[in-house]
């Protein structure tokens, strides 16, 4: 197969111009906790705005007024910009486009995926225009990623893949190949691999197994394994007593230990524990430390009032000594089945 590379997505640790987020507005996403989550967003913005611009989508005038009032009360007024744009869900990792570099010109371009709310929900109508809005607001062109086997747009979410900017990409079979919550019926492993090569510049796909328990996306990689630095991958590790996750996590760890990068080199694999299970109305929530976000000079990590919080923060600090590593309490945030990485989308330089 000829080399299809035309674009390259930088690693998350590459320098950013900005981070895009959307102010929470659906009460149903955070039952009884939306005010607490909005204050947690202020804490995220406090750390991000010290290091890069923060671009905030607000779905209404009232929502923007709420965001401004809370941020002003938090003494957060600089490096923050507001945008009036309707949207359904706050998870911009998935509904927003992914910024890539056009290889021939080194210019920036937003890669637009089709978002269908993880093939699970039907309240995503306003999210279809988010890529166009972000493209116009950032004065950066966009390109629609198409399936290579049909004339239809490729359904994909930013939380479904993780890249290192060196040609390697992490994904899960559960998310992309299962007939449950099926994004692209008829697509197989090789079809995805060719799409990753064409649209993300990733020609070495590492397939992992299953997802985090309680994950309504059915297997997003950003709760399971992430590139943390060139040649280094952090992966979720469950205790044997956690029967719902243990086998899948062990499978992922073994696959990563056997994996090679595109140059044929082994990766350094670092295990991160899960926090103790968190439930709401007998439903386990996808609480995972792997949903961290890497910003300029910073890594923000979800914490859960758990004894493993300190352990994980220490591991990541040791792995990334050039970045400040801070925890943000996400016990309420994860009621929406996501946390920090799910809520952010980087705009690299």
Averaging pLDDT over every residue, what do you get?
Answer: 96
Instruction: From the 3D structure, determine the CATH topology.
Output: L-arginine/glycine Amidinotransferase, Chain A
Total domain count = 1
The percentage helix is 10-25%
Any idea what the CATH superfamily is called?
L-arginine/glycine Amidinotransferase, Chain A
**In this structure, how is the largest beta sheet organized?**
4 strands, mixed
From the spread of the alpha carbons, the general shape counts as: globular
| Strand order, largest beta sheet | 1-5-6-7
- Got a strand count? 19
SSE string? EEHEHEHEEHEEEHHEEEHEEEEEHEHE
CATH architectural arrangement: 5-stranded Propeller
Structural class: alpha/beta
Determine Rg (CA atoms, Å): 19 Å
Strand content range: 15-25%
> So what's the CATH class?
Alpha Beta
* Cα distance spanning the termini: 32 Å
Report the total helices: 9
In the predicted model, the low-confidence regions spanning at least 5 consecutive residues are: none
Q: Secondary structure elements and their pairing?
A:
Elements: E1 7-8, E2 16-22, H1 34-48, E3 53-58, H2 61-73, E4 80-84, H3 92-95, E5 98-102, E6 107-112, H4 130-137, E7 142-144, E8 162-163, E9 168-172, H5 173-177, H6 189-200, E10 204-208, E11 225-229, E12 232-237, H7 246-258, E13 268-273, E14 279-280, E15 283-284, E16 293-295, E17 298-303, H8 308-319, E18 324-329, H9 340-343, E19 345-348
């Amino acid at each position: 197969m000829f080399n299809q590379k035309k674009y390259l997505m930088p690693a998350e640790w590459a320098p950013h111009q900005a981070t895009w987020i959307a102010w929470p507005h659906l009460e149903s996403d955070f039952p009884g906790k939306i005010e607490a989550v909005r204050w947690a967003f202020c804490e995220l913005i406090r750390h991000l705005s010290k290091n890069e611009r923060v671009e905030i989508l607000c779905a209404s005038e009232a929502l923007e007024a709420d965001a401004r009032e809370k941020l002003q009360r938090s003494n957060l007024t600089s490096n923050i910009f507001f945008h009036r744009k309707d949207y359904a869900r706050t998870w911009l990792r998935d509904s927003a486009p992914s910024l890539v570099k056009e290889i021939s010109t080194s210019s920036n371009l937003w890669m637009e995926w089709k978002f269908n709310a993880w093939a699970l929900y039907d309240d995503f109508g306003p999210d279809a225009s988010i890529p166009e809005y972000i493209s116009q607001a950032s004065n950066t062109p966009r390109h629609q990623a198409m399936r290579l086997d049909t004339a239809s747009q490729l359904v994909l979410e930013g939380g479904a893949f993780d890249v290192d900017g060196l040609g390697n990409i992490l994904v899960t079979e559960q998310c992309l190949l299962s007939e449950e919550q099926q994004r692209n019926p008829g697509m197989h492993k090789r079809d995805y691999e060719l799409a990753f090569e064409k649209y993300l510049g990733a020609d070495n796909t590492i397939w992992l197994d299953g997802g985090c328990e309680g994950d309504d996306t059915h297997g997003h990689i950003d709760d399971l394994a992430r590139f943390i630095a060139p040649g280094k991958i952090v992966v979720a590790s469950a205790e044997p007593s956690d029967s719902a996750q243990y086998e899948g996590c062990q499978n992922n760890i073994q696959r990563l230990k056997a994996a090679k990068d595109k140059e044929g080199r082994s990766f350094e694999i670092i295990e991160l524990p899960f926090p103790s299970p968190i439930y709401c109305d007998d439903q386990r929530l996808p609480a995972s430390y792997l949903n961290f976000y890497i910003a300029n000079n910073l890594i923000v990590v979800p914490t859960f009032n758990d004894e493993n919080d300190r352990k994980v923060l220490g591991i990541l600090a040791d792995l990334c000594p050039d970045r400040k590593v801070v925890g943000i309490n996400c016990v309420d945030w994860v009621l929406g089945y996501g946390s920090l990485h799910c809520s952010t989308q980087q705009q690299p330089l």
